[in-house]
Amino acid sequence: MTTTLLLIGILVAVFVGYNIGGATTGPAFGPAVGADAISKTLAGGLMTVFFFVGAWTIGRRVVDTLGRELVTDPGVFTLESSVGVLFFIGVALFIGNFFGVPASTSMTAVGSIAGLGLAAGELNWAVMGEIAIWWIVSPFIGFWVSLIIGRYFYASLNRRIAMERSEGPLFEVDRSGTVPTPTLSDTTNVREAGGVVMVIVIGCLMAYSSGTSNIANAVAPLVGSGELEMNPAIIIGCFAVGIGTFTIARRTLETMGNELTELPLTAAIITATVSATLVIFLSVIGIPASFVIIATMSIIGLGWGRATRPVTVGDAVRGEESAPVSVGALSDDREGEELPPIGEEAEPERIPKASDLFDPATTARVVLMQNVVPAIATVGAYLTFQLVPIFGL
C-alpha cells in the first residue's frame, strides 16, 4: 500500500512540475520568443537546463522551508496528505495554464501547505509570517529599485543597449565548410546581435532563479514526508518541469511574448535582472518567492521613474508640479534616443498612455488569475483536509 501511495505521490508531483514548467517559461523567455530571437523549442530547452541548475544548487533550501519548517510537525506530511497537497497545487496551476496565465507557483504551493497546516492545527505561524512579510516587502523593493533606475540611469543605459530589431533571421548557417558555422545575417548588425543575446542571457538567469524557488513547489511535501530523498526528488521535479516547458508552456510564451506587454529591450533587461536577483536572494534565505508579482511591480516602478523625469524632486516635494502617472513612458524607446535632463519637459508626443505599454484586457486577466489560483489551492486544501476523514487529521 505504501509503495502504491508513493508512486501516486510521484505521479502527482510530476503533474505539478509539468504545470510549473508551463507557468514559468513564459515570464523567462516570452520577450526573447516575442522578438523572434529564439524558437519556443529552444526556449523550452534553455528553461529546463537552467531550472535544474538553480534547483540543484539553491533550491533545496526552499524545499526544507516548505517541507520541514512551514508546519510545526512534519509528521502531518503523510503520504496521503502529501498527495492531497500536490493535487491542489497541480489543479490550481493547471487552471492558470489553461487560461494562458503564468500563475504564482510559490503562492499556490504555500497556500496548499498552509491549508494542510491549518486543518491539522500545525501551521508554523512564525515561518508563515516571515514568508508573508517578504511577499509584501519584495515587490516594493523591486518597485523602488526600478524607479530609481528609471529616473536616474535609464537614459544612459538605453543609449548603450537600445536597438532596432531588423526583419529576418538573426543568424544564418554557413554550410560550405566541414562544420556548419552560424554567422550574422545580412540584415543584422553587431549591436542588434548583442542586444538579442543579452535578452537570452537574462532569460537564462530568470530560469535559474525559477529553479531556486519553484522546485520546492513540486517535491517539498514528499521530501517532508521522508518517503523521498532530496536528490532524486529534485531530479524527478526537474524532469517534469522540462516536459511542461516543451508542451503547455507554448501558451504562456504566447501570452508573455505577444499579448501582455511589448517592453522595449532596455526595460525588459532591467526588470528581468531586478526581479531575478530578488528571487535568488529570497531563495538563499529559504523564502519561496513570486517572480511574476515582483516583475510586475518592477515594470510599474521603471515606468513611473521614467514618467517623473520632467519633475525635479524639489518641485515634487513643494507640490509645484504634479508627476505624470503613465507607465507608458517605457513604450517609445529608440536606438540612440536622447532624453532631456531631469526637470525638463519632454516632447508631448513622447509621453504615451499606459495602454501603449499594457494590453488592458490581458493585464486584467493576469491580475485576476494571480489572486484566484492561490485562493483555490488554499481553500480547497483546507476544506479537504478538514472534512475528508481519509487523511486522519
Automatic annotation (TrEMBL):
GO cellular component terms listed in the entry, alphabetical order: membrane
Keywords assigned: Membrane, Phosphate transport, Transmembrane, Transmembrane helix, Transport
Residue ranges of the region described as Disordered: 323-347
Listed transmembrane segments: 44-63, 75-99, 132-154, 193-210, 230-249, 287-305
Primary localization: membrane
InterPro entries, sorted: Phos_transporter
Protein family: Belongs to the inorganic phosphate transporter (PiT) (TC 2.A.20) family.
Name of the molecule in the record: Phosphate transporter
